[in-house]
Amino acid sequence: MKRHTTTLAALLCAGLLSACGEAPVRDISGPPPAASRIKFFNFGVGAPGVNFYADNTKMTAISSATPGVESTTGVNYSQVGNGGAYSAIAPGQYTLAGKIAATVDKDLAISTVPATIADGKYYSFYMSGFYNTTTKTVEGFVVEDPVAAPTDFTVATVRFVNAISNANPMTLYAKNTTTATEVAVGAEVAYKGAGALASLPAGFYDLSTRYTGVTTNAIVRTGVQFLAGRMYTIGARGDITIVSTTATNRPFLDNTANR
Description:
Blueprint: H1 2-22, E1 36-42, E2 50-54, E3 57-58, E4 87-89, E5 92-100, E6 109-117, E7 122-132, E8 137-145, E9 155-162, E10 170-176, E11 182-189, E12 193-194, E13 198-201, E14 203-211, E15 219-226, E16 231-237, E17 252-257
Parallel strand pairs: 1-7, 9-16
Antiparallel strand pairs: 1-4, 2-3, 2-5, 5-6, 7-8, 9-12, 9-13, 10-11, 10-14, 14-15, 16-17
């Protein structure tokens, strides 16, 4: 009995090895699938809440109280989609869009921007300017985010994006609240523009923007913390003509961490 059992086991093993030998071996030595990253801002003054799309793919979502039913809230004005996190997106050509989330005019695209997404790069899509209630449209633009691994863990890197359509080109300034040292963060930035990265020692800063040749601040935000080894984008949004310090559409400096 022992002899027959041994022979049978040997035959089964040989059969398994033969089957395995005929199956193709999966090659996992190549690079992982290409992917880039993008985040979405609703900085369109007066714009309704939207869901953001890349072609027909929904890129942002708001949790719903009703299972199986999409939220009608969307990403509201002044907010960043997905809690400020980047969404993965494959490289390629896209039409990026903000589409109304509410029941009325559901999925109507109010802002569309064609964009080329390159392999392994980071981007931000901004709805900007003023929402036109007649045409139900608002402007938008895309900028590349120069996200990279930090090389100096004693400083933060900061840049300025201007999303205020009725403001002149502005320069962002950062004043260290401990040393009182004030520096320009890059150069002057026009509407729909993004400035260069500037390195700042970690700490708390009072931020302001000014027009060229003007000493009066156009926008002010105090007590902003920058952590070492992190990258931040300061985005200007709102209506530059508003002087109220509490109005929703007042000019404001948004601070969003890129890394």
